[in-house]
């Protein structure tokens, strides 16, 4: 059994990062029997399983926006990050060395890793890449986002990691353009695919559908497609023992048909009238189809602290104005006979913003409820799955909803969100928060069937991701 070290940020309180780790693990397991070890590059913690675990939700704690924080020079923040990572080297370096030694390949990625967060990510990426290089283990940078500006040290460390990597797969075309602008010599091994969260539905249905056997059949069917980049598999010709044993089983043949449907743009559930239905899950995780005759459609509002814009965007949205926008959105949905459920991706500052600003404004509004702040990826998935439509800010609230074929509208706040939605053919689902909420919500088609062009684009990109991961595996 080959071992893959998947180095990312799975323990981030923003559960979108855990969702990335979960779906990437599932895609790897779709190619047969592999051991996946998760390593958090910022916390230095190891976790061999990424399934749901008991955890307390992040306490609502709104980020400080005071003068002291705004006045802190970037150079001091970079110096602080540098010395924190120097201190971590003693405790993180030895376990990382042992993990790389145990692994047949190192996958570095998932999330927006090629970004200069005051040197935090550049230093963490450098540590993993340097250890893979030292031990001469293959390194793949997997489905990451890239964005500037990069400081001089960050540029040096990122380019060094990218030069050693066998392949670099990015989540959107703009990230690819940005990276190649920094180093055109990387063009031959750098590809723009999409985000692994497109596999959300399959990942959480795996326990019911026997997806490992299903995916072994998918590996046989799609493994010979010409490669996107360097591969140790000889253009996908390797056949795993799991694939061979699955081929001999009638149950696996049936599972294989289900696996093929993962990449069939026409394989979506429909009711007797031919209308594509939204997927929902009960608390036990069993998928059911949302009833078209429900008295009120459930619309989920995925809310983020607008102060996050200051870290990642030129846009500014003051907390008071933002909270008013969401209250007005809820009121407009209520006028359309919808039920409103508010959720977050679990980050403490998002929870704090909802607690301090949104809840008081929605007090007294009928049919508006607030989900418990999620502490696990499974809880976040269940909350999104229970909604018939979603309006959200975080990328990994929007993408899982879209992947489940729900009407999904994304509030534009970060270029990566708009770039990925545009790549998927969902540019018409991007919402400018500067438009009054009542006007924006009134223009949304929250009962519309999924766009067929989007379904075909999503399935094509999923197939590309599946095949490329297969070629990277040892």
Automatic annotation (TrEMBL):
Coiled-coil regions listed in the entry: none
UniProt xrefs under Pfam families: PS_pyruv_trans (PF04230)
Keyword Transferase set for record: yes
Gene Ontology MF: a single term: transferase activity
Keywords from the UniProt entry: Transferase
Keyword set includes Transferase: yes
Domain Polysaccharide pyruvyl transferase: 14-208, 318-414
Domain of life of the source: Bacteria
PANTHER family reported in the protein's UniProt record: COLANIC ACID BIOSYNTHESIS PROTEIN WCAK (PTHR36836)
Record's protein name: Polysaccharide pyruvyl transferase family protein
Source species of the chain: Paenibacillus rhizovicinus
């Amino acid at each position: 059994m080959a071992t893959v070290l998947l180095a990312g940020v799975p323990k981030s309180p923003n559960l979108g990062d855990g969702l990335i780790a979960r779906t990437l693990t599932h895609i790897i397991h779709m190619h047969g029997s592999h051991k996946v070890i998760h390593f958090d590059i910022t916390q230095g913690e190891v976790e061999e399983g990424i399934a749901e675990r008991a955890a307390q939700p992040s306490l609502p704690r709104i980020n400080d926006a005071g003068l002291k924080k705004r006045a802190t020079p970037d150079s001091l923040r970079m110096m602080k990050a540098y010395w924190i990572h120097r201190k971590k080297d003693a405790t993180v370096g030895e376990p990382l060395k042992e993990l790389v030694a145990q692994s047949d390949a190192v996958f570095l990625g998932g999330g927006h890793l090629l970004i200069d967060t005051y040197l935090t990510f550049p230093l963490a990426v450098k540590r993993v890449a340097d250890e893979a290089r030292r031990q001469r283990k293959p390194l793949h940078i997997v489905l990451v986002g890239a964005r500037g500006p990069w400081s001089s040290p960050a540029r040096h460390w990122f380019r060094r990691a990218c030069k050693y990597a066998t392949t670099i797969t990015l989540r959107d075309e703009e990230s690819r353009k940005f990276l190649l602008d920094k180093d055109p010599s990387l063009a031959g091994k750098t590809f723009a695919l999409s985000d692994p969260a497109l596999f959300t539905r399959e990942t959480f249905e795996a326990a019911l559908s026997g997806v490992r056997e299903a995916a072994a059949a998918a590996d046989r069917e799609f493994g010979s497609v010409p490669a996107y980049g360097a591969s140790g598999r000889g253009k996908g010709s390797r056949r795993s023992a799991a694939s061979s044993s699955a081929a001999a089983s009638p149950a696996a043949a049936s599972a294989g048909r289900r696996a093929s449907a993962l990449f069939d743009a026409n394989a979506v559930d429909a009711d007797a009238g031919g209308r594509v239905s939204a997927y929902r899950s009960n608390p036990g995780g069993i998928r059911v189809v949302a009833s078209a005759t429900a008295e009120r459609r459930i619309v989920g509002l995925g809310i983020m602290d607008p102060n996050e814009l200051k870290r990642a965007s030129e846009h500014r949205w003051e907390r008071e104005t933002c909270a008013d926008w969401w209250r007005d959105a809820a009121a407009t949905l209520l006028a359309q006979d919808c039920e409103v459920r508010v959720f977050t991706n679990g980050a403490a500052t998002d929870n704090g913003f909802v607690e301090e600003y949104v809840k008081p404004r929605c007090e007294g509004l009928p049919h508006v409820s607030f989900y418990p702040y999620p502490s696990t990826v499974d809880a976040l998935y269940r909350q999104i799955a229970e909604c018939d439509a979603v309006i959200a800010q975080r990328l990994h609230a929007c993408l899982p909803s879209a992947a489940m074929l729900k009407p999904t509208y994304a509030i534009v706040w970060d270029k990566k969100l708009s770039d990925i939605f545009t790549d998927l053919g969902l540019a018409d689902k991007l919402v400018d928060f500067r438009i009054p909420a009542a006007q924006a919500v009134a223009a949304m088609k929250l009962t519309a069937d999924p766009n067929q062009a989007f379904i075909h684009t999503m399935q094509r990109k999923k197939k590309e991701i599946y095949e490329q991961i297969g070629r990277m595996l040892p």
